[in-house]
Amino acid sequence: MALIECPAGQPASVPALLHRNAKQFANAPAYREKEYGIWQSWTWSQTRGEVEALALGFMDLGLNEGDFVAIIGRNRPYLYWAMMAAEMCGAIPVPLYQDQNAEEMAYVMSHCGARFAVVGDQEQVDKVLDVADDLPEFERMIYLDSRGMRKYDHSALNQYQDVQELGRKNRDKHIKELEARQAKLNYDSIGVMLYTSGTTGKPKGVVLSNRNIIETAKSSSEFDGLKQSDEILAYLPMAWVGDFIFSVGQALWTGFCTNCPESADTMHVDLREIGPTYYFAPPRVFETQLTNVMIRMEDASRFKKKLFDYYMAHARKVGPAILDGKDVSFGDRLKYRLGELFIYGPLKNTLGFSRVRVGYTAGEAIGPEIFDFYRSLGINLKQLYGQTEATVFITAQPDGQVRSDTVGVTCPGVELKIADNGEVFYRSPGVFVEYYKNAESTADTKDAEGWVATGDAGFIEPDTGHLRIIDRAKDVGKMADGSLFAPKYVENKLKFFPNVLEVVVFGNGKEECTAFINIDLTAVGNWAERNNIGYASYQELARHPQVMDTIQSHVEEVNASVAQDEMLSGCQIHRFVVLHKELDADDGELTRTRKVRRRIIEEKYHDIITALYDGSKQISTETEVTYEDGRKGSIKATLEVRSAKVFPVAHKMAAQ
Amino acid sequence: MKDNAESYVTEDGRTIGPVVMEMKNITLRFGGVEAIKDISFDIREGEIRAIIGPNGAGKSSMLNVISGFYVPQEGEVWYRGAPRPAMKPFQVAQQGIARTFQNIALFEGMSVLDNVMTGRLTHMKTGMMAQTFWYGSAEREEIANREVAEKIIDFLEIQAIRKTPVSRLPYGLKKRVELARALAAEPSLLLLDEPMAGMNVEEKEDMSRFILSVNDEFGTTIALIEHDMGVVMDLSDRVVVMDYGKKIGDGTPHEVRNNQEVIDAYLGVAHD
């Protein structure tokens, strides 16, 4: 596929867009951050000043074209500027997950050979210093928050504002060179490198060009009619492609304002204060919020609870239809308006969703109840499907065609095809350049014609053109009797129960399916509190007989629903355990984006899996755990293995 | 023995300043009970000074003498080169001494921010009328003080609970709020009464980190009482050990750890 060229007159790089905005939207707010309890804001022209000063400072410290600059920290305007400043210098920003441990960071930083790092605070400085000896190319670190940093050796360490000061002081010396470097940037130059979360094996560096970033930002902004006056809250990891596209790509393209929370803990308060108009969250965030709302309603007075239930029932009935602009009777509309006054309005305000015009969720399947709850309130929540390699967007749901079981139609400029084994392939202007220093993987993923394998199995609905995703293509397997095994399909059904946090289903090549289950400590803990059930730890609560009973009833409910689907009815869960610990990214069981790593779990818990298949009633096990600071410990536990009721396939029964 | 007016550098590179407070032969009695018997020691500028000892050793009484709450029957407290007269608590605060309490003493019904703001009281100069109508200097003053309070809230990472009433907070956070209030007074000497009592390991680590950062960042001299020996040995520059109201050891953590009397007091040797 021919690469799209930059239209004449349009900025062809991220820094060029910044310069355009500094002229066009000079006094409009570009970035905001809450600090010391007050929202501090920077206009577009101020932002350019800050970014340029930093870029000049980088030059003064000797940053070269083509160098990699690691960016590590929570979402702060300064770190977004650092990315843009690196691009101005012709260097390539590489945002890292801030909760990665030092070894994971060392891998990424040595793989790209980062020379500079811009980090948030002492914690990140310490992590990088810990591994600096293994990073021969690494030279200089720039930190933002100077708390606790006074006594560090500053020979290779600079404070962020000091670097900007340096840049401002030596402006005359470097500005010519900086302008020359920016002039060289075009659609083909690299805009950013993002590491995949590494669901399988080591993380891979996905190289995205200015073409990828700008074309994607352009078409997706048009798709949803994003405006300069929009507001977003940047709170998802900076290393994730979505955050980069929303807070840098689309923000620069449309000129809207990016707001950064005060700290991770204040996110919900800040969300409410800002009231974003464009909002993105993974299903987990919506789920947690809904759980919190329901828990608080349980504790509300009887009158309030009644009012809530009454109007929520009405919202579920007509809310989504009103949102989609369908025909709804005058009476129902009037009642919905009353509900808006009494319940929906105040609730949306509490959640911080009063002004949301476009809301997206992606990354995992979202429970239909959760999805409908938000839509019935009148929040335009939609689903999209994408990945780092596509610069996010592959498919998205257009306004008015929103359903919980599809991921939407192809985004503008994207082509889709489904391979024989069900794997989804796409081709678009957003398709990544390559995996850095990994030609082999690049060739495996992207063919000569530019088609990229998503690794997901799915199909396109013939009558609507919507894409439906079943599972990861490599996880889809066959049961011993030859029927289809799609673990994620079953896991998602179970995860839609508030009591269930995480599920791993096994059964590839086996006679029957079994599962590991993690309970949700918030939901189950609250239930325990209300029923006067005492517990000291997660482990104790997880093996409580009543909890086991509840989980068993959930499993059986899911089995009944899976049995409805002829193709997947073999995936009913026959036996399960409730795990004694939460699956955790620190133990390598989940990726940093909280996706299950099946192989690792299979190896680590092989004793429990054996017990699930050999008919044991219980299994004693010992598991190694890693604490946040890297120390290791172990948990011993005896787990009860339960059998769940399975159902005959509805269709086959009728046929016999 | 180092000279009182001299600074010196410790083995791990910390600079400890001259003596700011000196206890000279303090004896404190409650009726017939001698809580403190003839104790002398000093606190130097910029150091973290710990007072340890078994239960009932007189540690909290000692801290109350330092803070001026108790006036000893015998002996003198010298502060910044002069003997200190008996004082009212607000006068002590004005001298730049702030403290936290063993059993948290916050205003439970007030928000965290308001609690921290109370720590700024000694820095507010405008009169009652101006405060009531909040005009002119009162407004400017409150804004300036709020800024200091917010910096401390940021420093102790309690932004998320800024507007939360203290009564709704868990114990570990209340302790941190109390530290915030003490810091808001911008003290030169900070007294901490068992800052880590009743905390879990993680909370203790957080608190240790904050105490060290306070000392490091603001140069605040800190005197603390603590039970957890591990914490004390890691944190403090010098340690005073008390037992039954008497001083049985004084020195660096290393010296104290190898002091036979201290070992006896902690491991429990019969007293004669």
Report on this structure.
Chain A is α/β, with parallel strands linked by helices and 656 residues long. Chain A contains 22 helices and 29 strands. In chain A, the strands form eight sheets. Chain A has a five-stranded parallel sheet, with helices on both faces. A five-stranded mixed sheet of chain A has the order 12-13-14-15-16. A four-stranded mixed sheet of chain A has the order 2-1-11-10, sandwiched between helices. In chain A, helix 2 packs across helix 6, helix 4 packs across helix 5 and helix 8 crosses helix 9. In chain B, 36% of the residues lie in helices and 25% in strands. At the A-B interface, loops of A face helix 5 and helix 7 of B.
The side-by-side strand order for the widest beta sheet of chain A comes to: 4-3-5-6-7
**Which structural class is indicated by helix and strand composition of chain A?**
alpha/beta
Task: List low-pLDDT spans of chain B.
Answer: none
Question: What would you call the structural class of chain B?
Answer: alpha/beta
User: How far apart, in Å, are the first and last alpha carbons of chain A?
Assistant: 51 Å
The biggest beta sheet of chain B is recorded as:
6 strands, mixed
Secondary structure layout:
The complex is a heterodimer of chains A (656) and B (272).
Chain A: H1 14-24, E1 29-35, E2 38-43, H2 44-60, E3 68-72, H3 77-88, E4 92-96, H4 102-112, E5 116-119, H5 122-131, E6 140-143, E7 157-159, H6 160-169, H7 171-184, E8 190-195, E9 205-209, H8 210-223, E10 231-233, H9 241-254, E11 257-260, H10 267-274, E12 278-280, H11 283-298, H12 302-323, H13 330-351, E13 358-361, H14 368-376, E14 381-387, E15 392-396, E16 409-410, E17 415-418, E18 423-427, E19 434-435, H15 439-445, E20 452-460, E21 467-472, E22 477-478, E23 484-485, H16 487-495, E24 500-506, E25 513-519, H17 521-530, H18 538-542, H19 545-563, E26 573-578, H20 598-604, H21 606-614, E27 618-626, E28 632-640, E29 642-643, H22 650-655
Helix pairs in contact in A: 1-2, 1-9, 2-3, 2-6, 2-7, 4-5, 8-9, 12-13, 12-14
Chain B: E1 8-9, E2 15-16, E3 19-30, E4 33-44, E5 48-52, H1 59-66, E6 74-79, E7 82-83, H2 89-94, E8 97-100, H3 112-118, H4 128-133, H5 137-155, H6 171-184, E9 189-193, H7 201-218, E10 221-225, H8 229-235, E11 238-243, E12 246-251, H9 253-257, H10 260-267
Parallel strand pairs in B: 5-10, 5-11, 8-9, 9-10
Antiparallel strand pairs in B: 1-2, 3-4, 3-6, 6-7, 11-12
Helix pairs in contact in B: 3-6, 5-6
